[in-house]
Amino acid sequence: MRGLKGSCELQRKRIEIEGIVQGVGFRPFVFQIAQLHGVRGWVCNDSRGVVVEAEAASGPLESFLSDLRGKTPPLAEITRFDVTDCTARGAQRFVIRDSVEGTHRTARITPDTHVCEACLKELFNPADRRYHYPFINCTHCGPRFSIVTGIPYDRVKTTMVDFPMCAACRDEYQDPNSRRFHAQPNACPVCGPQVRLLSAQGQGLPDMDDPVAATIDLLRQGRIVAIKGLGGFHLAVHACHSDAVAELRRRKARDEKPFALMVRDLEAARKLVRIDAAEETLLISTARPIVLLDQIPGHGLSPLVAPHNRSFGVMLPYTPLHHLLLEKFDALVMTSANISDEPIVYRNDDAPRRLCGIADAYLVHDRRIHTRTDDSIVRVLAGRPMMVRRSRGYVPRAVSLSHAQPAVLALGAELKDTLCLTQGDRAFLSQHIGDLKNHEVYRALEQSAAHLEEILATRPAVLAHDLHPDYLSTHYAQQRDELPRMAVQHHHAHLASCLADNGVDAPAIGVIFDGIGLGPEGTIWGGEFLVGDFEDFLRAGHLACLPMPGGDAATREPRRMALSALRHAYGEDIPSLIHDDGFTDQERRLLQQMVARKLNSPLTSSCGRLFDAVAALAGVRQVVSYEGQAALEFEQAVERGDETAAYHFEIQNEGNLLICDPAPLIRQVVEDVRAGRDPAWISLRFHNGLAQVIAEVCCRIRLQTGLGRVALSGGVFQNRILTEKTSGLLEDEGFDVLLHRQVPPNDGGLSLGQAVIAGRRFGKKST
Ligand SMILES: [Zn+2]
Ligand SMILES: [Zn+2]
């Protein structure tokens, strides 16, 4: 009898749920399962997440709780689920209550998401009231992070506050059985945002009843149109129209850096690039990143889309507006609308001024973008996705840390900057901010820091920055002098970033290969073997140092590094090469003297610069027009990856350091060039040689330290051939190999490493 009584008796539970539970249709989901199981009570959003009070007999209540845990909406992600008993009150029905604003804000905001299948169907259904409406969305899709101004996530805390809903939209918004129940960006042609086409001068064009159709006409004619998207403007041109692509390059002053493509659908993409299963999954994921894919010969697009490059950066349409435009094209060039190093343009009033002389017209809309967000870039490597740029579609999703730590705001370094703010055991990286080389990007950093602190309601306890005193990110930390700050060495931050990315909080060998970063004693590092953890590190070895004749100029001119490498391998007696490096005899003499007299020729162990040297020696590239170009083209020179023949480094002991000297390798390259070997041959042997020396040095470090775990980080490990070969060799030797997954191996992931190091050190200091 007791059991029977228990099962009929009303029980009431309070359920507190945290994670990504706002703006993803969570409350209607709760409402619907409450109806299903005959549960009464209420649900509401608060600043931590969602709170439910549910009342029913124990049987239905258990079923309700089980569905609540197990059947969450597609975009939701639960990080805390707490159930407590309370006193039954005899509730009569189940309701959705208004949001309450608390002081503790831990509610997560979702990333911007690709328009869902249900919305797409309506978009192309002539009978639907949102037929061809470019801003169709629902609780499962649409803009989020880019339009949020604060939390809790509600319409008034988004830029949709500008658009009062019409009666029809309000009905959907209030109907728990509608897909648009509490869809904050809900809108329709009657009440919502509208597109407009503006002239090159930014003036409205007369008699424009279909701005999208007019834009399609302009693009077909080979014009350049600036199109406002989700996180900012793109500059668009017809990808088959070589004159248009050439004109875009000329006006943007962008010589060779590849342009991204937006392609109509998978079928159209398969005519341009090879796509494997993992790549397909990425292309059609809700984040809709740019995926780097190998071109198919005879693809038919303008060769100027990606000159000297064997891959294309491809994304599928991700907003309803993109779908409308791409209905009429196989592929459009869609490159971020910015001028050289400035951040992407994202405001209507700014666009005609900043893009003056570049765009022939502007397709704008009146939904404000609150936070500009560039397209993300991903490539598949060793069968899994690797971030190259983590931004739209991923931000502000958190990286889980193995332990809670003090709140740290980490500021990154200089290139590809991102921020990272930690809150408990979660790390939130900002969107891609850019290269911190001018005031505009610095302003973007300030705004992003303020916005992250606002939406997470977290004030940092400590700031983390790079050792380099002249970076603008360091300057920002110094400006906020009310907060303590910690300088973190660049390559140590890379190591920690890779560990945190893999949820590992233990010592490891770090192979950190990148362009350039400041070492502890003022030298320039970039080809490092470290041993360390979140707290500290030691340098166990590095690539031999080469002079960089002319300093920064050597980064722009791989041929300078080639001269430097030749001098390193042959001394005074430099052999003449077959390739024309473009230097006059006098210039070459001058550079050799600079190196000999150690004038403006800082030493670096950078692997990026070694790549440059060998790429130039192999005749692949003498002068670059964008960062990393020589190494990228050298990697792409490899045609067959399965051979194992390799060039050799000499490993020397210098005190406690293992030095990998490329002198024998350089001499082998010269012999092969003389023997008429092609770049494919030279590149493959170089990659093999580098992978082998990494494995060899790691084995020696394991003998000394007993460490069997290797983290591969730094921008060089975006190189697929090197990374796959290196991790293969290391795994054959029995190592546990960690590669980056959630954040990029390049400096875009650096802030995560800075944040965990500063968190650990600061936590120790304050206990
Ligand atoms: Zn939808
Ligand atoms: Zn409406």
TrEMBL record:
Active-site feature positions: 27, 45
Sequence ranges assigned to domain YrdC-like in this UniProt record: 209-393
UniProt domain Acylphosphatase-like: residue ranges: 12-98
The organism's place on the tree of life at top rank: Bacteria
Any one GO molecular function term: ligase activity
Keywords annotated in UniProt: Hydrolase, Ligase, Metal-binding, Zinc, Zinc-finger
Cited Pfam families: Acylphosphatase, HypF_C, HypF_C_2, Sua5_yciO_yrdC, zf-HYPF
Catalytic activity: C-terminal L-cysteinyl-[HypE protein] + carbamoyl phosphate + ATP + H2O = C-terminal S-carboxamide-L-cysteinyl-[HypE protein] + AMP + phosphate + diphosphate + H(+); an acyl phosphate + H2O = a carboxylate + phosphate + H(+)
GO biological process annotation, one example: protein maturation
Record bears the keyword Zinc-finger: yes
EC number: 6.2.-.-
InterPro entries, sorted: Acylphosphatase-like_dom (IPR001792), Acylphosphatase-like_dom_sf (IPR036046), Acylphosphatase_CS (IPR017968), Carbamoyltrans_HypF-like (IPR051060), Carbamoyltransferase_HypF (IPR004421), DHBP_synth_RibB-like_a/b_dom (IPR017945), HypF_C (IPR041440), HypF_C_2 (IPR055128)
Pathway assigned in UniProt: Protein modification; [NiFe] hydrogenase maturation
PROSITE patterns documented for this protein: ACYLPHOSPHATASE_1, ACYLPHOSPHATASE_3, YRDC
SUPFAM superfamilies (alphabetical): Acylphosphatase/BLUF domain-like, YrdC/RibB
Family per record: Belongs to the carbamoyltransferase HypF family.
UniProt name for this protein: Carbamoyltransferase
Species per Swiss-Prot/TrEMBL record: Geoalkalibacter subterraneus
Gene: hypF
